[in-house]
Structures are given as C-alpha cells and as structure tokens.
Amino acid sequence: MILGIIPARYASTRFPGKPLVNIDGKPMIQRVYEQALKADLDDVVIATDDNRIAKAVRDFGGHVVLTSENHPSGTDRCAEALQLFKGDWTAVVNIQGDEPYIQPTQINAIASLLKNGAPIATLVKKIDSIEELTNINSPKVVLGNTGNALYFSRQPIPFQKGIDINDWLNHGTYYKHIGIYGYQSAILPELTQLKQGVLEMAESLEQLRWLENGYIIRTAETIENTVAIDTPEDLSRLKSL
Hints:
Spore Coat Polysaccharide Biosynthesis Protein SpsA, Chain A, nine-stranded mixed sheet, two-stranded antiparallel sheet, 9 helices
C-alpha cells in the first residue's frame, strides 16, 4: 500500500503561512490534497507542525498528523508522519505542499516506480530553454542508461567541451529535477539517519546525500510543468494566469 504525504510548514522564510493562502476560494494545502486524492494512492495525509494548518485540514475533511517543529527537511517530516499515520504502508510518496496544481499523472509515475521496486523515485523533465538550463534555482540531473540518477547539480551538466553554452541544447539532452519523491517505507527511516556530506553542503541539494551513501534514485520523465508557490510574487503570477 502506498501513502501520499504532504509536508506543510507554516514558518516558511520567504512566505510565512503559505499553505493557508487563498487560491480561488480554497487554501493552497487543500488544492494540493485534492489533486493527490485523484492519484493512484491508497491514502493521503498532510504532515504539519502547526495547529492552524491542522485545523484548516480538518475543516475541509482531510487527514492530518501533527509532527515536530524541528525537522530539517520534508523527508524527515514524512518519516515521522509514516509512524503516526497507522497502516500497512509499503511505500511513501512525498508530495510538495506548495504545488497546488500538481498533476495526478506525475504522482502516479512515482507510485509506478515504487511498485516496481525502486528504493527511491523522483521525476525529471527535459529542458528546452537556455534560461532554464542556466537557472541555478532549477536543479539539473544526469541520468544513466537505466534511468537512474547519477548526479544532481545547480550548474548545467554535463559540460559540453568546446561548444558555446548557448548551443548546448543542440548537442545533448538535459533534464531538470522535479522535486517530488517516493521512498520504500523500510528505507525512509534510514535516510533520516544519514549525515550531510560534502556534495549536499556544496550544492544544497538533499538528494545528493542519498547518492553519496550509495542509494539508488530511479527517475521517470514527465512532460508536464509544475508551478510552485515559493513567494508572494509567485502567488500573484499564478492568479494572473
């Protein structure tokens, strides 16, 4: 059985209280929850550290668990939620709480990888613009022949020797990372015990900790875009669309 977990913190540095912002008559966290319910998951729960978010979830009839305020990442919050939300869960999908229109097909792609034995699963999407390729806020990923992730970086990778960077997309396929994860339930507690390594500290990308410690990350390709709300400006742009 696969459980969808939506981590939701109130104290966001760039946008405090963003899970509760109103998007077309509903709090954002409700939008994410309703999209997740459309996917092929056995259940969905919101994991929060804040009573205001918990109350909002209960008000719209969703499942919620209260977790510690001290988790350094969504992965750690998912691990606690897995313990709190009882069930025979063989795997977990970590669904970002700031993507109100995440597509159920993207969640299903992660679930399919987990059902086929992937220890850790995530999504990638082809890059089709030089602006996206060079955007350090959009992590890139290099894949092996089997679709496993080899490395993630904020820099464009692989490097094209002797070719102007503006022409790189004509000489290779580049992928950006879509930050939705799946984990086998037995592996999730192990990930929370790993210490930060030099790669993660250099790039500030949590998934590098897993690669440094020998875990396999399988990927599925999506053609659908995601819209994350990280700042009030992002919300304004979403509403304008």
